[in-house]
Amino acid sequence: MTPRPPRIDRTAFGVSVGLIALVCIPLFLAPESGGRLVTRAYELLADRFGLLYQWVTIAVTVFLLWLALSRHGRRRLGEPDSRPEFNTFSWIAMLFCAGIGSGLLYWSTIEWATYLGQPPFGLEPDSTEAAEWAATYGIFHWGFSAWALYGFPAVAIAFPYYRKHLPFLRLSTGIHGLIGKEGYDRPPARIIDLVFILSLIGGTGTSLGLGTPMIAACISQVLGIEHTFGLEVAVMAICVVTFAASVYLGLNRGIKPLSDASVIAAVCLLLFILIVGPTLFLLRTGTNSLGLLLENFIRMNTWTDPVDRTGFVEGQTVFYWAWWIAYGPFMGIFVTRISGGRTLRQMIGGMLLLGTLGCTVFYVILGNYGMHLDLSGALPVRDIAAASGAPAAIAETIGFLPFGLVALTIFSLVAIVFIATTYDSASYCLAASATRNLREGAHPARWHRLFWACAVGVLPVALMFIGREGDNDSLTVVQSATLVVSLPVLVVGALMAVSLMRSLREADRESET
């Protein structure tokens, strides 16, 4: 029999739209109160549950290493003779662009400034040791442990989806071992799919909420115009149009070529900075950071700052783990869609190793370049950030390069494309989650993908808006939203772990018979 074509799941679609309205409308109507509420929730959750986030990250990392190295790592996503739909470069490009977006451009350029002035482990601010750790901690926060938080939901969703040839590609696919084929329309599965929508809205809101002001600051400097909220909204509109066109064209004609182009452009920009910048400082500091990271990897994962309670762990490490966890369900669905034909070992190894390598290169070049400008006195990057905000400091850092206006223009274009590749992937996954009969190789309807491309831009505008009202700080509000929406994902993750182990045991029994 011919499989039925994909069709919209009216319940999932209606509830998803209602959830976006429920979250965003109060923020627009009462921005100042909304900002305080979100920030207060962050402080409470980080203090009460910060240790839980650290333990979850450790457990997930250990589990994925075991899974990749065990006999299960040889299991193929699809038929035994199936092969990957996308070549390795395009696969990692889509994975990289969907998973990090413009957030990597933002943080890799400026994150060191926080650690230099407020270093970990009780070190003296602005000391030599603080500078070395400032160049290292960003690599840690965007490295092996972080990508493991993406890899776990990808494995939990991909294994049952391809093994059982399921007609659904949703977060609830990851608990197939607990609910079976008949459980997807029942309340537990529906609730889990709502958690996915909430986490994706919050996670993408953080990424676009950080990237848009940064791009606006760069454009402001290039064109010599004032950096206003209106300019940020205009940038947002450009990004929405770009990723709407990409998601409308689909994976092969939109998301894939845009991801390939953005990675190539980013590599060219990094090579330019490496060549014209302080090359030896970048390479020496990067090498030193890798040594520090390898030597202290376990300590950095387990450091809780139990005595001094400086807030470093809650404000930095817990925030990053929450961000990656909030993005995890989306990445799980997207990576599942593009990973057919690969083995579990290939998927896990590609995410953990290649994802970490890509982020490390950004921090070694962009981050150390910005820190060199500040330490050498060539450009007071931290003073600019304190006076005008991190986006302005990033724009000044890139603009200080030779051919600064050209570099800023290229940097802005790469950031826009990075945002587009993140959001077209997110839109695709939202459409997939609200579609029935979406079997292996099928796509959600184009109008459906286009609708979500526009809808996902609502919360970032709300977060930027409330961040400009009253005493609210934009960065704090955006960070807070991530932690708040990530907490329910932890509960779903526990269910996915139980379901995955049950599915692996079932696969073992089938292999023996």
Give an account of the 3D structure.
The chain is 78% helix and 1% strand. It has 513 residues and is mostly helical. Helix 8 packs across helix 9 (251-276) and helix 11 crosses helix 18.
Give a concise summary:
By secondary structure, the protein is mainly alpha-helical. 78% of the residues lie in helices and 1% in strands.
Structural class: mainly alpha
Strand order of the largest sheet: 1-2
Give the ordered list of helices and strands. EHHHHHHHHHHHHHHHEHHH
Largest sheet: 2 strands, antiparallel
Give the oligomeric state of the chains in this entry, treating copies of one chain as homo and distinct chains as hetero. Answer: single chain
Based on Cα principal axes, name the global outline. Answer: globular
β-strand percent reads under 5%
**Unreliable runs, pLDDT <50, ≥5 residues?**
none
Total beta strands? 2
Tell me the span between the first and last alpha carbons: 28 Å
Helix content: over 70%
Mean pLDDT: 81
Please tally the helical runs, counting DSSP H or I stretches of 4 or more residues. Answer: 18
Radius of gyration equals 22 Å
Descriptive tags:
single chain; 513 residues; mainly alpha; two-stranded antiparallel sheet; 18 helices; 1% strand
